[in-house]
Amino acid sequence: GINAEYGQTKKSDASSALQELESKMSDISKTVVKARSDLDSVLESVKDEEKERDRVVKSIAETEQVIKTKSEELVKLQEKVSAMQEEEEREKDLVDKAVSNLDAVRA
Is 0.70 surpassed by the pTM of this model? Predict the structure, then answer.
């Protein structure tokens, strides 16, 4: 009778509720798996970006070292050129004096 019908309805309602919960759990599980996958992708991208940043930082440091070395070489070359110019001036003065002395002796 009524009790049997009521019991059947209750079982049907419980079964329906259970199926709904299972469906929601499945959806949640899929969402969690997708979120984990997305997170893994983001973390991999971050790792790749960090590697690239480290490579660029290393490259900058190497370039700065080359610039420093070349600047030091340039300073040494400038000092050599300056010393050569001074020597050239001294030699020119000596030649000028020698020519003057020669002219004085000839006169």
Answer: no
